[in-house]
Structures are given as C-alpha cells and as structure tokens.
Amino acid sequence: QVQLVESGGGVVQPGTSLGLSCAASGFIFSTYGIHWVRQAPGKGLEWVAVISYDGSDKYYADSVSGRLTISRDNSKNTVYLQMNSLRVEDTAVYYCAKDQGHCSGGSCHAYDYWGQGILVTVSS
Amino acid sequence: QSVLTQPPSLSAAPGQKVTISCSETSSNIENNYVSWYQHLPGTAPKLLIYENHIRPSGIPDRFSGSKFGTSATLGITGLQTGDEADYYCGTWDSSLSAWVFGGGTKLTVL
Predict the structure, then answer these.
(1) Which residue on chain A is closest to B42 by alpha carbon?
(2) Between chains, do A114 and B44 touch, taking CB under 8 Å as contact?
(3) How far, in Å, CA of B68 to CA of A59, rounded?
C-alpha cells in the first residue's frame, strides 16, 4: 500500500536550518508530484511547496519562497524540504502528500495520500 | 491571490445532513477542480472528493461534492459521531502556480 513517512523534525532556534525527508513506497514514485503542506498550532492547512514528478518544476508559497527548497531523488523514492532562516511562524506539523498527477507545467490535481506528519518547532 | 472561504464551524445531530460551502471571489474554482479533505487531529488528512464530485475508492456515498460557478459544496448525509473532524476544500490556482486551501470547517456532531 502507499506509504509516505516524514522524518527530520525537531526543535531549532530562529535563524537556523533544518532538513525534512519524505520516504515513499507502494507506488511508482517517479511519476507523481509531491507536496509539502503544514499546519501551525491552532491553524488550518497551509500549502508550502510542490515538486513535479521529475523535479523539473518547483513551486512555493509566498510565505516560504527564498527560504525553503524542495527537491527529490527518484532513485531513493524520497522528497526533501530544506528549511533555512527558520522563523517562529514556521512552527508546524509538516506533511508530505502525493499528488494524483505529475504536477508538471504548472498544474497539480489533488492529494490522494498523506504522511502522518512531523513536528517542527522554531523557538529560542 | 485566490482566497477560498469556508464557514469556520458547523454542527448537526447524528443522522442529519450537513453541507459545507467553499467559495471564492476570483475564478479559480470556476476554472479548476476542487477537492475536499477530512482531517482528524493527530492523523493524516484524507481525500474525500476530487475533481469536484468524484469519491475515491473506500469513501462512502454519504459524502458528495458539487460545484457551481465559483462555489463548491461538500455534502454529508447520515451524520455519524466519527464524522467529527475538520474539513478543507482546496484547488490549484493556475494563475499563481500555487495550491490554495480553504480556512477549514470544524464539524461537530452533537
């Protein structure tokens, strides 16, 4: 069955960096776009970034553009989220989610599978 | 920027029907597919509806979706206590190349 497992979360200080990973299994990883979505404490879901099936297209929310970088390694069935210059407002549970399509050419579809999420806390 | 508006909360009794609206002021719902997600605290969100009205395998037909113009609706019939959750609509904003979620609706089944 489809599984998405996030790792790499933790507690960090403002201004520092952290890297998240999302390990996928149970589907042909190299043919689907993958998103990162987060939920801050007491808030709703917020889309963070998406990478197309082959890594050629990447899109970011305005709130993270220039600080967070999404990437993927199709040989390892893994998507990464490198987070730099972290802010207190980046504190959230981060989910990776599989798109139903390629997410290429600036078009994504819907999230059909999600990971369980990983907590990132940015605090001094 | 596209903004999807949902009612913050709704409540209904077991066995009743509820509808959750998702509307926007721009034309992105009109021009793109809407999907709906159920999120119970501490768990992974679940896809309920995609392409405006299609249920994934395993989602009971108590859940339905529709879209008219710039508004989409999630319907839930025969409410059960297990339906208590947060519900989100979402769509791809093709003009911004960004995904947009509604603010979420907390459903309470009394």
Answers:
(1) A116
(2) yes
(3) 28
- Mean pLDDT, rounded, for B59-85: 95
Token look-up 């078009």 returns A107
Structure token pair of residue B39: 């999120």
Backbone angles phi, psi at A81, to 5 degrees: -135, 105
B30 has a pLDDT exceeding 80: no
Q: What is the CA radius of gyration of chain B?
A: 13
Specify the 3-state DSSP secondary structure of B54: strand
E strands of chain A, at which residues? 3-7, 10-12, 18-25, 34-39, 45-51, 58-60, 68-73, 78-83, 92-99, 111-114, 118-122
- Which of B1, B47, B98 lies at the smallest CB-CB distance from A110? B47
Distances (CA, A) of A79 to A11, B30, B99: 21, 31, 18
